[in-house]
Design brief:
This protein is α+β, with helices and mostly antiparallel strands. It has twelve helices and 15 strands. The protein has a seven-stranded antiparallel sheet with strand order 2-1-7-6-5-4-3. Strands 8-12-11-10 form a four-stranded mixed sheet. Helix 4 crosses helix 6. The protein is flat and about 90 Å long. The two termini are 51 Å apart.
């Protein structure tokens, strides 16, 4: 091993030697590696019953640290008010978690290479005693240990954020479905009071009232049904007055809806029997502002785009939400996840082309270009002229490159209404897009690099305020 004594070298030479050392060597922080064994016990436990014990843990503590080498729960515990008197240490500790905990500790070194100590922790009012035995087993790089702890903390924070997002979505679901029992303390969701305010405000609207009014009271004692009386009591609302006021407003609203519908372009005759979610892409005859993959800009016929699975549709939606922020660099990330509805529809046709099969595969690069839609638009023109009703093609945004559909006419829908729906929540942040569906349970994450091949996303300014 070569040792350099910088104090004996001229300043210029010392600087040169320092620059020549690898960055990792310069950043190392000398530390001692300790193996710590903890034995937990709880007052009042029956004789012969023992708490499950953790295996010995290894702790790297910097030699310059004023904190004793005890396990800190992967960085989720903070040691403070540390005091030393000779070979003895004492401290206080608070730990994150569900539930959180607090405690005190003391230990005494037995020479340089071992110690014994005791911690008393309080978890939800229950005391727990932890006897500690530490043994120094070698040296370590404390800076590397800190980086590992930081990585664990970051991962734990991400998990906690996901759990918080999931809880917020459940609370939001209680508002959407007008079920107040999910917001009560006994439900265990610990929903923010704002969700009760939102639900009660929604009860005052025709939309919320119409959800609750048809429900019948539960015939089982103690079982909530979300009926009008129950929701009214939860919100402290007079449901009789509410019924009178909203019924009058409903008549006025119906008149307003009729006026709005009359101002819109008419639905094509062949689409008038369809639900608006199916007919809307074919309704508007105004100039299409920018082209899409199989539709040219200008006064062109509509196209209904769909993925063959919800996951494909969610990937496409996540991309276009990120693209919006890419084109709006001054817009902060949204504070909360946005809610979207994925719906399914049945179609049937004898006139379709699959660009993922046969002779069309050789032109895959043209069909899947990220930004140049000209070949696809030219192909769509030919397909329309040949009365082709559906084009099946690979998604360039789905990581699995699943199949998309472009329906050129509403006549292909086999049923007049969507056949199923799912509620998805998409959270956007500097880390990317995270999508969650509670029923059925499904989660997808699109990190920064997921869409980085698209030059429009490559220019996105990820670091921005919320």
């Amino acid at each position: 091993m070569i040792r350099l004594s910088i104090r004996l070298l001229p300043a210029a030479l010392a600087l040169a030697l320092s620059a020549a050392l690898p960055a990792a060597a310069q950043n190392k922080e000398p530390g001692d590696l300790w193996e710590v064994t903890n034995e937990m016990s709880m007052p009042g436990m029956p004789a012969g019953m023992n708490l499950p014990q953790r295996p010995p843990q290894r702790v790297c503590r910097a030699r310059s640290s004023d904190k004793p080498p005890v396990a800190d729960n992967d960085g989720r515990c903070e040691m403070y008010d540390t005091k030393r008197s000779g070979n003895a240490f004492s401290w206080k500790m608070r730990c994150e978690g569900n539930p959180p905990s607090t405690g005190t500790g003391e230990m005494t070194y037995e020479g340089r290479d071992s110690y014994q100590g005791t911690m008393t922790m309080n978890v939800s009012g229950q005391a727990m005693t932890i006897k500690m035995v530490g043994k120094r087993v070698g040296e370590c790089d404390a800076s590397e240990s800190k980086r590992q702890v930081a990585a664990v903390q970051q991962q734990a924070a991400a998990i906690q954020q996901q759990a918080a997002d999931a809880r917020a979505m459940q609370c939001k679901g209680a508002v959407d479905s007008m079920l107040p029992y999910m917001l009560r303390a006994e439900a265990g969701l610990q929903c923010d009071p704002k969700f009760k305010t939102e639900l009660c405000r929604k009860l005052q609207t025709p939309e919320g009232f119409s959800v609750v009014a048809p429900r019948q009271p539960s015939q089982v004692a103690g079982l909530a049904s979300g009926d009008l009386k129950e929701v009214g009591e939860f919100c402290g609302a007079n449901v009789s007055d509410l019924r009178l006021r909203l019924c009058k407003r409903a008549d006025e609203q119906e008149t307003l809806e009729d006026l709005i519908q009359a101002s819109k372009p008419s639905v094509p005759p062949e689409c008038q029997h369809l639900h608006y979610l199916l007919s809307t892409p074919f309704r508007y005859g105004a100039a299409y502002p920018i082209g899409s993959r199989f539709r040219r800009a200008g006064l062109t016929d509509g196209v209904f785009y769909a993925g063959e699975s919800p996951e494909i549709a969610v990937a496409e939606m996540a991309f276009y939400r990120l693209l919006f922020y890419g084109e709006s660099p001054g817009t902060p990330w949204p504070a909360n996840p946005a809610e979207y509805t994925a719906f399914s529809a049945e179609y049937a046709t004898r006139k379709a082309i699959d660009l993922g099969k046969g002779r069309y595969v050789k032109d895959k690069a043209a069909w899947m270009h990220l930004t140049d839609y000209a070949p696809c638009q030219a192909f769509a023109d030919i397909a329309r002229a040949a009365k082709i009703e559906v084009i099946r093609y690979r998604s360039v945004l789905d990581p699995q490159q699943g199949m998309n559909l472009a329906l050129h006419t509403c006549r292909t829908f086999a049923k007049p209404k969507p056949t199923g729906q799912q509620t998805w929540h998409i959270r956007l942040s500097a880390a990317g897009a995270h999508a969650v569906c509670e029923s059925p349970n499904s989660r997808m994450t699109y990190r920064r690099e997921a869409f980085a091949a698209d030059p429009r996303i490559a220019r996105l300014r990820w670091d921005r305020d919320r």
